[in-house]
Amino acid sequence: MKAIGIVGSPRENGNTEAITRHALTAIGEEGIETELIKLANLDIRPCNACLTCKNEESCPIDDDLFPIYTKMKKADAIILASPVYFSSATSLLKALMERAGYLAYNNGRPFERKVGGPLVVARHAGQNFTLAQITYWFHILGFYVPGSTYWNITFGGNKGDVGKDLEGLATVWNFGKNIAFLVKKLER
Ligand SMILES: Cc1cc2nc3c(=O)[nH]c(=O)nc-3n(C[C@H](O)[C@H](O)[C@H](O)COP(=O)(O)O)c2cc1C
User: What CA–CA distance (Å, rounded) separates 54 from 57?
Assistant: First the structure.
């Protein structure tokens, strides 16, 4: 059993990375292998609507997307984490969602009945919209999305600030525990 956490911030060692690690630690405690994948410094371009993936499971854009898509297909659980940028997920994470999403949507729906969900951090506002935005991706692709003790949103502006949001961190932790619970229930 494996869970991956994809960090959609272009800033390394920041708040998004911290909350993703936190969730993965909660999952790892339950005996599930975990891997953190940072999109920072990777080349992930947006979908260009060539529609190649409607006929075959490939993408002619030659960048860093496909190895991550392959890991997503193998994982039992996927977390997509983003900072809020202008009340939205980052364009970096959106690019991955567009391309991995369309590849999966058109090629046997490999994410069907996997477990997953979003994590979001912002300095001040926009978390709920971004949480919903990412949740739509999970829902259309057939994931089971567990809840937590609150919505999976956290507060933090400068690097490390999210460490002060104790309620947010507890929510992230409990979300990780619910992911692990569901992954184990669904083990085939
Ligand atoms: C381009 C940009 C846009 C941002 N937009 C928002 C916003 O709409 N609302 C907000 O509260 N914070 C906003 N922020 C702040 C980030 O969400 C916040 O610093 C977050 O902790 C960054 O996560 P990171 O440390 O993982 O990079 C923005 C930051 C940047 C760089």
Answer: 8
